Amino acid sequence: MKLNVIITSTRPERNGEPVGQWFHEYASENRGDFDEVILSDLAELGLPLLNEPHHPRAQKYTHEHTKKWAGIVKGSDAFVFVMPEYNYAPPPGFFNAIDYLALEWNYKPAGFVSYGGVSGGIRASQGAKEILTTVKVMPLPEQVMIPMVFEHLKDGVFSAPKIVRDSADAMIAELGKWSAALKTLRD
User: Fold this and answer.
1) Which residues of the chain are under the pLDDT cut of 70?
2) What is this structure's pTM?
């Protein structure tokens, strides 16, 4: 099974890149039931504001960026969205990336590594869960929340405290269980 860690912030100088790189490395070393852990960065993928002429359910993609994104999502068995909180909500890149596709998301679990100030990005992940259920993604209650993320960043590297690593372990284990259980629906 393949776990896809997706960095959702596309802003320059974003904190999502060091947090996402940390989680990708951590999950690769502690992957539980997953054979592979990949990292997808929405900033690198560069999806423009949804520009496909056909509805995503038709899967008649005309642009190479959409075909590439569809292949990445279809080939994944579970997701972890690395997500900041912007105005109590997920970042716009998250919404755009979800809207590009429909069927490729179906019957896969998702977890979150949320970060921010005092709230740790929890409001963004709660809002994202509602959106994900519309494309048949099962958001898990277990998640990694990083309040005051700035205190754990030094020279562009995120250093996770024990409570963050412990919550990552719990989420990765649950993602493995749910991914295996939903596999029959994906097949």
Assistant:
1) none
2) 0.97
